[in-house]
Each structure stands twice: as C-alpha cells, then as structure tokens.
Amino acid sequence: MISVNETHDPNLVSWVESANSEGCDFSIQNLPFAVFRRKSSNEAFRGGVAIGDQIVDLAAVSELGVFSGQGMAQEAAIACAQSSLNEFMGMGEAAWSALRLALSRGLRKTRDVNSALKACLVSQQDAEYSLPCIIGDYTDFYTSIHHATSVGKLFRPDNPLLPNYKWIPIGYHGRASSIDVSGQVFHRPSGQLKSSDAKEPTLAPCQRLDHELEIGIFIGSGNALGSPIRISDAESHVFGTCLFNDWSARDIQAWEYQPLGPFLSKNFASTISPWIVTMEALAPYRSEFAHPSEDPQPLPYLTSDENSKQGGIDIKLEVFIQTERMRTEERVPEKIATSNFIHSYWTVAQMVAHHTVNGCNLRSGDLLGSGTQSGPKQEEAGSFLELSLGGKQSILLSNGESRTFIEDGDTLVIRGWCERVNAARIGFGEVISTVLPTKSVSQYKG
C-alpha cells in the first residue's frame, strides 16, 4: 500500500490561491484526475487535474513540454492528453505517482510562479466533463454490513444476513453502458411489477425508485486471464476512487431478483462524479481494518498484514435531495443522510483479490462499485429503502414535502471528502443526477 510522501505535507500551499481556501475540495494535496473540455466548444475532451477552482489542462502540459526532461512524468502527461484516461491508468503506479509529484512541485507556492503551468489552467466554471475513461466492465459489490442487515430485516426479520455474507465479498456483474458522469438526467424506468396480492405482473413505471450511496473504484493496471491478484498486490492495480450513485428500481428488483439477482432494476442509470481521487492522495486517511472477533475471519487469500494495518479508508459522505418544488422556490439541496466508507465490511484490496481469485482478468478502466454505504445509525442510511423503512415511514423535508422514494423531478446530490488532524482536507466534488418522468409504456405494446 502507498505510504505518505512529500505530496501529502499539510503545510504545502499553492500559487493557485483558491486551492488554499478553507474547505476547498481540490487542495494541492489532492490533485484528482478527470476528462474535460470547455463548455459549448468543439474542443476534444482531454485529461485534466483539479487545483482549487482551476483545471490543469494535461493536453497543454504535454504539448508545451512542461515536464520535458522529467521522463515518466512527461510520458504520463502525453497519455493524459487523450480523450480517455485508460492508457494513463494502465501505465501503473510509477507513472501515476511521477505525474502527481511533478504537478505537486510545479503548483507549489515558491518565489516564482510556474509560468508554463499557469498557461495551462482552465477555470472549472468554464468546463464540462465526460466519463474519465472507457468503462469496459462494471461489478457492483455489497460491502456494507449495515446496509445488508437493514435491508435483510425488511424481508427476513429473523435471518437478515445470508450465511455467506461474512465469508465472501458479495457482488454481481452490472451494466457499464448506462453509467454516465455527474449531471446525468434519465427517465424513470419501466419494467415488470407484481404486488404480493396480484395474480400476474404488469408492465408499468417504477414506483419505488431509489438512490444508492456508493464509492466507485477504478482499476488501473489489469491482470492476465488466469492470473489472480494477491491481496498484497491488489492496491497497486487500483488507480483511484470516485463518488457513485447506483440507481435502483426496488419494485422491479423485488419481482426479478430471484434466482439470478438484479437485472432491469439496476441497468438503466448509474452516475459517477467527474473526478477520480488517486489511491496515493488517500494515503493519510487510511485506518486499521478487522472483522469483529466474534465473526468468521477472512480466508488466507483475503488476509494480509498491510490490509489489517490500513485497509480502511476514512471518506466522509453526505446525500442531499432537491425536489422540483425546491428548485422553483430557489431552495438549496437538503441533506437527508451522512455516512462513511470506514464502515465497509470488506476493503478495496479484498474486493480486487476476491474478484480475481478464480482467474478473472480486470482491465484498465474497469469499475467496481462498493455497494450502498450505510452506517450503524438510521441517519447514516445510504438509500431511501432504509431511510423510509421499506416505504413505511416518510421523510419530511423542510418545505413541507415528504418522500418515501424518489419522485419525478427530484435531483440527488452526493458529496464526499477526507479530513483528519495533521492532514490536509481533500474532496471528491459531487455527483448530481435528476429523474425525469417515464416514457409512455404504451409504445412497447404489440
């Protein structure tokens, strides 16, 4: 696992003054990656790095040779000039770290501003984003034991957790084609629904649309088919993490999920934040990790000293809602839940090790979803399914509206950040998505 180095020094400040502001997500200790271009332009999308309220245009860095003579840093910048980060992500840890170090040194406040880098800045206010990479495959895990227990209690009060949960990082293969970047707008899905007292199902719009508060994990360098990744090497294959809202249609899910699991209930939309925070940037926020002593302990392939010492990651998370009426009334989004990735029952390294133990090959740009991240308290629930106790309890908003599930016109906002004593605050930005009314199901008849 990555150690703390000079790029994490909490005393570092940048000549980009906005990066030094209290509460800034994109301090010089962060330097996350995205793919962007100027709004309403015909420019090619290309890689960029956030610093304060600016973006370092890595295509310009490459073209101007800002890091010429710095070997791997310049090679990495050239790879980042493309319309996706896959090639850069596939270059591995040494390249990721070399470019991040060069950027850190070039953006630090010294006697002289780095004029070459200054010429490469684009305001975030003027930018629009694309997916940061081509996502070839997407796997969604189920790593929050608090979420699994809460949901299990709704359907199996006497036995909420299935026997395998504490032994295996549970996951399923999801749909990559419907993943989009923050700002995603999608229509309410339709599918087969069947109430408990109905004789047969009907095709109808989803009535129990839900968000899922997740962390997205991007694979950097992959592995060959048939070659499992050891847990001790797992994080060297992980480029970084983002915020992730994996939308769910709970009523479609209830009818379809047995015997093979989620299908149409999960494949209609998923939204990620534009910025990928590298695993290196997260080094100061690592924590000890262990399953409770009374629980089964992980099998040897899911165990390592490093994973026990610092497998946990302290990422604070918040979920907000803004209804259509709130927008009309010019009300800001309202917080409905908080949580933390530290509650995850399985670590990033364990997810990667388990995913490949059978020889499965991961590729650069593959995405792993953490599964809904809920904490032990009711207010830390990462979905409306939990917040509303399966639709039995309404959540009252400050303008008098209430919700049990998400309605048309609702916008969901997820934010995340890391903050500790003796470490600089770093953030993930936010992921925003909005639900439109369903398209008529009559067009699907006949």
Describe this structure in words.
- This protein has 446 residues and is an alpha+beta fold.
- The protein folds into two domains: 6-130, Fumarylacetoacetase, N-terminal domain (SH3 type barrels, Roll), CATH 2.30.30.230; 138-444, Fumarylacetoacetate hydrolase, domain 2 (Alpha-Beta Complex).
- Helices cover 18% and strands 27% of the residues.
- The protein has helices at 58-64, 72-80, 86-90, 93-107, 115-118, 145-155, 250-256, 305-310, 324-328, 348-356, 384-387; strands spanning 33-38, 46-51, 54-57, 121-123, 127-130, 138-141, 171-173, 179-181, 184-187, 190-193, 202-205, 209-210, 213-219, 238-246, 248-249, 270-272, 277-278, 286-287, 312-313, 316-322, 334-340, 367-369, 395-396, 402-403, 411-420, 423-436.
- The strands form seven sheets. Strands 6, 7, 8, 13, 14, 16, 17 and 22 form an eight-stranded mixed β-sheet that branches. It has a five-stranded antiparallel β-sheet with strand order 4-3-2-1-5.
- Helix 1 packs across helix 2 (72-80) and helix 2 crosses helix 4 (93-107).
- The longest helix is centred in the first third of the chain and has 15 residues, at 93-107.
- The termini are far apart.
What are the defining features of this structure?
single chain; 446 residues; alpha+beta; SH3 type barrels; Fumarylacetoacetate hydrolase, domain 2; eight-stranded mixed β-sheet; five-stranded antiparallel β-sheet; 11 helices
